[in-house]
Amino acid sequence: MTKETSSAADLSSWIQQHLDQLPQAERRLAIVILEAPGQLASYSASEVTRMAGVSNATMTRLVQRLGYENYDQMRRLSRQNMDWGSPLYLLDRKGADDEAAEAQGPFEPHVAASVQNIQGTFAGMSAADIDVIGGAIAEARQVRVFGQRNNYFFAAYLRWQFIQFRNNVYLLPVSGETMGEYLVGLQPDDLFIVFGLRRRTPGLAALITAVSRAGVRTLLITDSANRSDLGATWVLKCDTTSTTPLDNHTAVMALCHVLASQVIDKAGVAGRQRLIRIEELHTELKEL
Fold first, then answer.
1. What is the pairing mode between strands 234-238 and 143-146?
2. Please, what's the b/e burial string for 40-61 (b: 16 or more CB within 10 A of its CB; e: otherwise)?
3. How far is residue 174 from each of residues 49, 148, 192, 193, measured CA to CA in Å?
4. For 229-243, how does the pLDDT look when each residue is reduced to its tens digit (9 = 90+)?
5. 204, 196 contact by CB (below 8 A)
6. How far apart are the two ends of the chain, measured CA to CA in Å?
7. Which residues does the UniProt record annotate as the domain HTH rpiR-type (predicted)?
8. Which residue among 46, 140, 148, 215 has the highest number of C-beta atoms inside a 10 angstrom radius?
9. Distance of CA 90 to the CA centre of its chain
10. Gap between the Cα atoms of 225 and 204, Å rounded
Protein backbone atom coordinates (compact mmCIF):
# COMPACT_ATOMS: atom_id res chain seq x y z
CA MET A 1 0.00 0.00 0.00
CA THR A 2 1.26 3.46 -0.83
CA LYS A 3 2.18 5.96 1.85
CA GLU A 4 -0.36 8.48 0.56
CA THR A 5 -3.31 6.16 1.24
CA SER A 6 -2.29 5.11 4.75
CA SER A 7 -4.26 7.77 6.63
CA ALA A 8 -7.97 7.72 7.36
CA ALA A 9 -8.17 11.43 6.65
CA ASP A 10 -6.79 10.82 3.15
CA LEU A 11 -9.36 8.22 2.06
CA SER A 12 -11.88 10.42 0.24
CA SER A 13 -9.26 12.89 -1.01
CA TRP A 14 -7.18 10.00 -2.40
CA ILE A 15 -10.20 8.66 -4.30
CA GLN A 16 -10.97 12.17 -5.57
CA GLN A 17 -7.40 12.59 -6.85
CA HIS A 18 -7.71 9.43 -8.97
CA LEU A 19 -11.26 10.03 -10.17
CA ASP A 20 -10.52 11.47 -13.61
CA GLN A 21 -8.09 8.65 -14.46
CA LEU A 22 -10.45 5.78 -13.63
CA PRO A 23 -12.17 3.59 -16.26
CA GLN A 24 -15.90 4.24 -16.63
CA ALA A 25 -17.22 1.46 -14.34
CA GLU A 26 -14.66 2.16 -11.62
CA ARG A 27 -15.35 5.87 -11.86
CA ARG A 28 -19.08 5.25 -11.38
CA LEU A 29 -18.30 3.17 -8.30
CA ALA A 30 -15.91 5.81 -6.95
CA ILE A 31 -18.56 8.52 -7.34
CA VAL A 32 -21.04 6.45 -5.32
CA ILE A 33 -18.42 6.03 -2.58
CA LEU A 34 -17.60 9.75 -2.56
CA GLU A 35 -21.29 10.69 -2.20
CA ALA A 36 -21.30 9.02 1.25
CA PRO A 37 -17.89 7.52 2.12
CA GLY A 38 -19.12 6.60 5.59
CA GLN A 39 -21.28 3.87 4.04
CA LEU A 40 -18.14 1.77 3.60
CA ALA A 41 -18.05 1.29 7.38
CA SER A 42 -21.32 -0.65 7.47
CA TYR A 43 -21.90 -1.93 3.93
CA SER A 44 -20.30 -4.91 2.28
CA ALA A 45 -18.47 -4.60 -1.01
CA SER A 46 -21.40 -6.30 -2.75
CA GLU A 47 -23.89 -3.81 -1.32
CA VAL A 48 -21.83 -0.85 -2.51
CA THR A 49 -21.34 -2.28 -5.99
CA ARG A 50 -25.12 -2.87 -6.25
CA MET A 51 -25.70 0.81 -5.45
CA ALA A 52 -23.36 1.72 -8.29
CA GLY A 53 -24.72 -0.90 -10.68
CA VAL A 54 -21.32 -2.50 -11.26
CA SER A 55 -19.80 -5.92 -10.63
CA ASN A 56 -17.85 -7.09 -7.58
CA ALA A 57 -14.84 -7.43 -9.86
CA THR A 58 -15.03 -3.66 -10.43
CA MET A 59 -14.64 -3.10 -6.69
CA THR A 60 -11.60 -5.40 -6.65
CA ARG A 61 -9.99 -3.47 -9.50
CA LEU A 62 -10.77 -0.09 -7.90
CA VAL A 63 -9.27 -1.14 -4.56
CA GLN A 64 -6.11 -2.35 -6.26
CA ARG A 65 -5.83 0.73 -8.47
CA LEU A 66 -6.09 3.01 -5.45
CA GLY A 67 -3.31 1.08 -3.71
CA TYR A 68 -5.28 -0.43 -0.84
CA GLU A 69 -4.70 -3.97 0.35
CA ASN A 70 -8.40 -4.92 0.24
CA TYR A 71 -11.89 -3.57 0.77
CA ASP A 72 -11.73 -4.24 4.52
CA GLN A 73 -8.88 -1.77 4.82
CA MET A 74 -11.03 0.93 3.19
CA ARG A 75 -13.84 0.03 5.62
CA ARG A 76 -11.50 0.48 8.60
CA LEU A 77 -10.39 3.88 7.34
CA SER A 78 -14.01 4.90 6.79
CA ARG A 79 -14.89 3.83 10.33
CA GLN A 80 -11.98 5.85 11.73
CA ASN A 81 -13.28 8.96 9.97
CA MET A 82 -16.76 8.36 11.41
CA ASP A 83 -15.31 8.02 14.92
CA TRP A 84 -13.32 11.20 14.28
CA GLY A 85 -16.59 13.00 13.56
CA SER A 86 -16.11 14.04 9.95
CA PRO A 87 -19.53 15.26 8.70
CA LEU A 88 -18.66 13.93 5.24
CA TYR A 89 -18.40 10.41 6.64
CA LEU A 90 -21.58 10.77 8.68
CA LEU A 91 -23.59 11.45 5.54
CA ASP A 92 -25.58 8.51 4.23
CA ARG A 93 -27.48 7.75 1.08
CA LYS A 94 -31.25 8.17 1.36
CA GLY A 95 -33.21 4.98 1.85
CA ALA A 96 -36.54 3.78 3.22
CA ASP A 97 -35.54 4.61 6.79
CA ASP A 98 -34.73 8.19 5.81
CA GLU A 99 -38.06 8.59 4.03
CA ALA A 100 -39.88 7.28 7.11
CA ALA A 101 -38.00 9.79 9.29
CA GLU A 102 -38.91 12.64 6.95
CA ALA A 103 -42.59 11.63 7.21
CA GLN A 104 -42.42 12.36 10.96
CA GLY A 105 -41.73 16.02 10.26
CA PRO A 106 -38.69 18.24 10.90
CA PHE A 107 -38.82 18.23 14.71
CA GLU A 108 -39.50 14.78 16.12
CA PRO A 109 -36.16 13.08 15.27
CA HIS A 110 -34.18 16.01 16.68
CA VAL A 111 -36.24 16.19 19.86
CA ALA A 112 -35.86 12.44 20.37
CA ALA A 113 -32.10 12.61 19.83
CA SER A 114 -31.78 15.55 22.21
CA VAL A 115 -33.70 13.82 24.98
CA GLN A 116 -31.76 10.60 24.50
CA ASN A 117 -28.43 12.45 24.59
CA ILE A 118 -29.29 14.35 27.76
CA GLN A 119 -30.49 11.23 29.54
CA GLY A 120 -27.49 9.17 28.42
CA THR A 121 -25.03 11.90 29.36
CA PHE A 122 -26.22 12.37 32.93
CA ALA A 123 -26.76 8.65 33.47
CA GLY A 124 -23.03 8.25 32.94
CA MET A 125 -22.02 10.96 35.44
CA SER A 126 -21.56 10.82 39.18
CA ALA A 127 -23.42 13.41 41.27
CA ALA A 128 -20.54 13.31 43.74
CA ASP A 129 -18.05 14.16 40.98
CA ILE A 130 -20.19 17.06 39.79
CA ASP A 131 -20.33 18.36 43.36
CA VAL A 132 -16.52 18.20 43.69
CA ILE A 133 -16.00 19.85 40.29
CA GLY A 134 -18.50 22.59 41.11
CA GLY A 135 -16.66 23.34 44.33
CA ALA A 136 -13.33 23.44 42.54
CA ILE A 137 -14.67 25.92 39.96
CA ALA A 138 -16.15 28.17 42.64
CA GLU A 139 -13.05 28.16 44.85
CA ALA A 140 -10.26 28.41 42.24
CA ARG A 141 -8.08 31.52 42.17
CA GLN A 142 -8.57 31.75 38.40
CA VAL A 143 -10.63 29.71 35.97
CA ARG A 144 -9.43 29.50 32.39
CA VAL A 145 -11.79 28.04 29.81
CA PHE A 146 -10.30 26.80 26.54
CA GLY A 147 -11.84 25.71 23.25
CA GLN A 148 -11.06 25.70 19.54
CA ARG A 149 -13.32 25.50 16.50
CA ASN A 150 -16.87 24.61 17.65
CA ASN A 151 -15.50 24.07 21.16
CA TYR A 152 -14.71 27.79 21.37
CA PHE A 153 -18.41 28.71 21.42
CA PHE A 154 -19.15 26.31 24.28
CA ALA A 155 -16.17 27.70 26.18
CA ALA A 156 -17.39 31.27 25.63
CA TYR A 157 -20.89 30.39 26.79
CA LEU A 158 -19.69 28.63 29.94
CA ARG A 159 -17.43 31.57 30.82
CA TRP A 160 -20.34 33.97 30.40
CA GLN A 161 -22.38 31.87 32.84
CA PHE A 162 -19.59 31.79 35.40
CA ILE A 163 -18.76 35.50 35.38
CA GLN A 164 -22.20 36.32 36.73
CA PHE A 165 -21.16 34.83 40.07
CA ARG A 166 -17.36 34.85 40.32
CA ASN A 167 -14.29 36.89 39.33
CA ASN A 168 -11.28 35.92 37.24
CA VAL A 169 -12.75 33.68 34.57
CA TYR A 170 -10.87 33.90 31.26
CA LEU A 171 -11.66 32.61 27.78
CA LEU A 172 -8.79 31.19 25.71
CA PRO A 173 -7.44 31.54 23.13
CA VAL A 174 -7.83 35.25 22.39
CA SER A 175 -7.78 36.00 18.67
CA GLY A 176 -4.27 36.29 17.25
CA GLU A 177 -2.52 35.10 20.39
CA THR A 178 -0.76 31.83 21.20
CA MET A 179 -1.17 29.72 24.32
CA GLY A 180 2.37 29.99 25.68
CA GLU A 181 1.76 33.38 27.28
CA TYR A 182 -1.24 32.03 29.17
CA LEU A 183 0.49 28.99 30.63
CA VAL A 184 3.19 31.02 32.38
CA GLY A 185 2.12 32.08 35.87
CA LEU A 186 -0.42 29.34 36.45
CA GLN A 187 -0.69 28.30 40.08
CA PRO A 188 -1.91 25.08 41.71
CA ASP A 189 -5.07 26.76 42.99
CA ASP A 190 -6.12 27.66 39.43
CA LEU A 191 -8.48 25.54 37.33
CA PHE A 192 -8.30 24.87 33.59
CA ILE A 193 -11.46 23.78 31.71
CA VAL A 194 -10.94 22.33 28.24
CA PHE A 195 -13.71 21.65 25.72
CA GLY A 196 -12.53 18.77 23.56
CA LEU A 197 -15.58 17.66 21.60
CA ARG A 198 -14.87 16.07 18.28
CA ARG A 199 -13.26 16.99 16.02
CA ARG A 200 -10.39 17.66 18.37
CA THR A 201 -7.24 19.53 17.36
CA PRO A 202 -3.95 17.57 17.61
CA GLY A 203 -2.35 19.72 20.33
CA LEU A 204 -5.01 19.16 22.98
CA ALA A 205 -3.16 16.42 24.87
CA ALA A 206 0.04 18.47 24.92
CA LEU A 207 -1.86 21.47 26.28
CA ILE A 208 -3.41 19.47 29.13
CA THR A 209 0.00 17.94 29.91
CA ALA A 210 1.61 21.40 30.12
CA VAL A 211 -1.15 22.70 32.38
CA SER A 212 -0.99 19.62 34.64
CA ARG A 213 2.79 19.98 34.89
CA ALA A 214 2.17 23.33 36.63
CA GLY A 215 0.11 21.49 39.26
CA VAL A 216 -3.16 22.86 37.90
CA ARG A 217 -6.27 20.70 37.90
CA THR A 218 -7.97 20.23 34.54
CA LEU A 219 -11.54 19.43 33.54
CA LEU A 220 -12.03 17.94 30.08
CA ILE A 221 -15.52 18.15 28.58
CA THR A 222 -15.62 15.82 25.61
CA ASP A 223 -17.89 13.48 23.64
CA SER A 224 -18.72 9.89 24.51
CA ALA A 225 -16.82 8.59 21.50
CA ASN A 226 -13.53 9.88 22.96
CA ARG A 227 -11.72 6.94 24.58
CA SER A 228 -8.88 8.99 26.10
CA ASP A 229 -8.88 11.27 29.13
CA LEU A 230 -5.87 13.11 27.60
CA GLY A 231 -4.39 13.30 31.09
CA ALA A 232 -7.13 15.50 32.59
CA THR A 233 -8.00 15.47 36.31
CA TRP A 234 -11.71 15.06 35.58
CA VAL A 235 -13.46 14.01 32.38
CA LEU A 236 -17.14 14.65 31.64
CA LYS A 237 -18.45 12.95 28.50
CA CYS A 238 -21.51 14.10 26.58
CA ASP A 239 -23.57 12.01 24.18
CA THR A 240 -23.77 13.78 20.82
CA THR A 241 -25.67 11.25 18.70
CA SER A 242 -27.56 12.90 15.86
CA THR A 243 -29.97 12.11 13.05
CA THR A 244 -27.84 14.30 10.77
CA PRO A 245 -24.11 14.41 9.88
CA LEU A 246 -23.70 17.21 12.46
CA ASP A 247 -23.39 16.24 16.12
CA ASN A 248 -26.27 17.09 18.46
CA HIS A 249 -24.81 19.24 21.26
CA THR A 250 -27.96 19.62 23.39
CA ALA A 251 -26.40 17.61 26.23
CA VAL A 252 -23.30 19.83 26.16
CA MET A 253 -25.43 22.91 26.79
CA ALA A 254 -27.35 21.07 29.52
CA LEU A 255 -24.04 20.21 31.20
CA CYS A 256 -23.01 23.88 31.05
CA HIS A 257 -26.19 24.75 32.93
CA VAL A 258 -25.51 22.07 35.54
CA LEU A 259 -21.98 23.39 36.12
CA ALA A 260 -23.22 26.98 36.27
CA SER A 261 -25.84 26.04 38.85
CA GLN A 262 -23.12 24.39 40.92
CA VAL A 263 -21.10 27.61 40.85
CA ILE A 264 -24.16 29.60 41.94
CA ASP A 265 -24.68 27.30 44.91
CA LYS A 266 -21.00 27.13 45.90
CA ALA A 267 -20.36 30.87 45.46
CA GLY A 268 -22.96 31.62 48.12
CA VAL A 269 -23.38 35.17 49.40
CA ALA A 270 -20.32 36.50 47.58
CA GLY A 271 -21.70 35.28 44.27
CA ARG A 272 -25.08 36.85 44.87
CA GLN A 273 -23.51 40.16 45.86
CA ARG A 274 -21.54 40.13 42.62
CA LEU A 275 -24.70 39.54 40.61
CA ILE A 276 -26.47 42.37 42.46
CA ARG A 277 -23.63 44.76 41.63
CA ILE A 278 -23.66 43.67 37.97
CA GLU A 279 -27.37 44.42 37.75
CA GLU A 280 -26.83 47.83 39.37
CA LEU A 281 -24.16 48.65 36.80
CA HIS A 282 -26.43 47.56 33.94
CA THR A 283 -28.96 50.10 35.17
CA GLU A 284 -26.38 52.81 35.81
CA LEU A 285 -24.82 52.41 32.35
CA LYS A 286 -28.20 51.89 30.62
CA GLU A 287 -26.79 48.80 28.96
CA LEU A 288 -30.01 46.79 28.84
1. unpaired
2. bbebebeebbebbebeeebbeb
3. 49, 10, 15, 15
4. 889 999 999 999 887
5. yes
6. 63
7. 9-85
8. 140
9. 13
10. 16
Residue 100 pLDDT: 52
Rounded-to-integer distance, Cα 16 and Cα 4, Å:
13
CA 45 vs. chain centroid, Å, equals 30
What is 6-33 written as a DSSP string? SSGGGHHHHHHHHGGGS-HHHHHHHHHH
Per-residue pLDDT reduced to its tens digit, 80-124: 777 766 666 666 654 434 555 556 677 888 898 899 999 999 999
Domain 3-93 matches domain 108-285 at the CATH topology level: no
How far apart are alpha carbons 194 and 222 in whole angstroms? 8
Q: Cα Rg for the chain, rounded, in angstroms?
A: 24
Whole-angstrom CA distances from 65 to 31, 55, 62, 79, 106 are 15, 16, 5, 21, 42
Q: What is the pLDDT of residues 33-66, one digit of tens each?
A: 887 787 788 788 999 899 888 999 999 999 998 8
Burial status of residue 200 (CB atoms within 10 A of its CB: 0-12, 13-18, 19 or more): buried
From CA 56, how far away is CA 163, in angstroms rounded?
61
Whether 167 contacts 138, CB under 8 Å: no
- Mean pLDDT, residues 193-217: 91
Polymer length of the chain: 288
Domain range annotation of the chain: 3-93, 108-285
C-alpha closest to that of 223 among 201, 191, 199: 199
Question: What is the pTM assigned to this prediction?
Answer: 0.72
